[in-house]
């Protein structure tokens, strides 16, 4: 992001974010916000990488630079006090004996920060974030659930049972609308239990409630296309599989 004309700055070219081509490309990046002032420079981006743990749909990266001459109160430099739900992962000096470079995420134990050599002529240490996050699939056990198995046949059987029911008996049994509603709802529930078969399924902790076997098949096809893309370098099959997921 180049510095804008009204930023009051004449040196430097602003902040930027570089993305490894194996993680994402320009088609997967959306600019959320960009801002430049004498006290702060901000570039906020939303990423849809080729692969993420299923419980995450996207990654939002906020890159912030606060120059030495900035008003720290105005720049709101310490996010740990301003936004206590964010966690600062850098616990070592990044320039001399001071920790000037911070990395915040919403997850306390998601990364381990390591120091590395500076880039080019910079005098700030490079920060390498080593993921510590464990997928929910690995730290939560799957659970067994009993669900109704709706099919065209079972739906038709339920409709026949509803058509054959004597609904007048509910009208004649009570003059209270609340009792009438409770009786009708309970009767319909009993018909559903007697007519619609139930099956036991295994529910995984990272599985969204709306993900059925059709969507899982599309997701598996996308993952297979991604693994093939790594070897062949051909993006066409992966793009087609990604569009197939979005259609659902």
Automatic annotation (TrEMBL):
This is Uncharacterized protein. It comes from Electrophorus voltai.
């Amino acid at each position: 992001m180049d510095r804008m004309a009204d930023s009051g700055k004449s040196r430097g070219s602003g902040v930027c974010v570089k993305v490894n081509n194996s993680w994402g490309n320009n088609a997967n990046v959306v600019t959320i916000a960009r801002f430049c002032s004498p006290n702060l420079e901000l570039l906020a981006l939303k990423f849809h990488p080729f692969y993420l743990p299923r419980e995450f749909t996207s990654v939002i990266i906020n890159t912030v630079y606060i120059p030495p001459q900035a008003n720290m109160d105005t720049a709101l430099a310490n996010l740990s006090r301003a936004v206590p739900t964010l966690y600062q992962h850098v616990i070592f000096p990044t320039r001399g004996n001071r920790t000037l470079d911070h990395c915040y995420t919403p997850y306390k134990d998601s990364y381990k920060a390591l120091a590395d050599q500076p880039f080019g002529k910079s005098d700030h240490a490079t920060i390498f974030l080593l993921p510590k996050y464990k997928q929910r699939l690995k730290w939560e056990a799957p659970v067994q659930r009993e669900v109704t198995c709706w099919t065209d046949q079972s739906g038709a059987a339920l409709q026949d049972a509803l058509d054959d029911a004597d609904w007048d008996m509910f009208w004649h049994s009570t003059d209270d609308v609340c009792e009438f509603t409770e009786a009708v709802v309970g009767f319909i529930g009993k018909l559903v239990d007697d007519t619609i078969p139930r099956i036991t399924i295994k529910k995984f902790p990272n599985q969204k409630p709306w993900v059925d076997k059709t969507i899982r098949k599309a997701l598996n096809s996308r993952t297979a296309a991604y693994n093939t893309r790594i070897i062949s370098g051909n993006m066409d099959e992966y793009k087609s599989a990604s569009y197939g997921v979005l259609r659902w």
